Amino acid sequence: QVQLAESGGGLVQAGGSLRLSCAASGRTFSGIVMGWFRQAPGKERELVAAIGVGSTYYADSVKGRFTISRDNAKNTVYLQMNSLKPEDTAGYYCAARQIGYDNWNYWGQGTQVTVSS
């Protein structure tokens, strides 16, 4: 089992920055893939970024603006969000899956990001 807890959301003006954090506990953190999803009202959930062992993934909509990183010593994954746009407004959720498996089995409760124009 993995427990995930997000923090760092809030209200920011367009062009601003936020950093989300996700603290993991419960099992070996270095052996799992961590990801950030987001979901806006009326829209499907979207994988924004993910980080495994030596690899990262970014959705096209955030490439060049968002950076995902992890600190295995602190069991924490971060999402640095720069040049935020109103369309980035959503609930952001931290998730985890085992390396080699497709299902995201572990989820945090989410943190709201609101970008005003």
Account of the protein in words:
With 117 residues, the chain is mainly beta. 0% of the residues lie in helices and 54% in strands. The chain is built from no helices and eleven strands. It has strands at residues 3-7, 10-13, 18-25, 32-39, 46-51, 56-58, 66-71, 76-81, 90-98, 106-107, 111-116. The strands form two sheets. Strands 2, 4, 5, 6, 9, 10 and 11 form a seven-stranded mixed beta sheet that branches. The protein has a four-stranded antiparallel beta sheet with strand order 1-3-8-7, with no helix packed on it. A hairpin with a 6-residue loop joins strand 4 and strand 5 (46-51). It is globular and about 40 Å long. The protein starts with a strand and ends with a strand. The model has no long low-confidence stretch (mean pLDDT 94).
List the topology elements.
Blueprint: E1 3-7, E2 10-13, E3 18-25, E4 32-39, E5 46-51, E6 56-58, E7 66-71, E8 76-81, E9 90-98, E10 106-107, E11 111-116
Parallel strand pairs: 2-11
Antiparallel strand pairs: 1-3, 3-8, 4-5, 4-9, 5-6, 7-8, 9-10, 9-11
Average per-residue pLDDT, rounded, comes to: 94
Strand count, sense and closure of the main sheet?
7 strands, mixed
Distance between the termini: 40 Å
In terms of structural class, how would the helical and strand content be classed?
A: mainly beta
**Assembly state:** single chain
Order of helices and strands: EEEEEEEEEEE
Shape: globular
Which percent band covers the strand fraction? over 45%
State the low-pLDDT regions, or none. none
Helix content percent band: under 10%
What's the tally of helices? 0
- How many β strands by DSSP? 11
- Report the radius of gyration as a whole number of Å: 13 Å
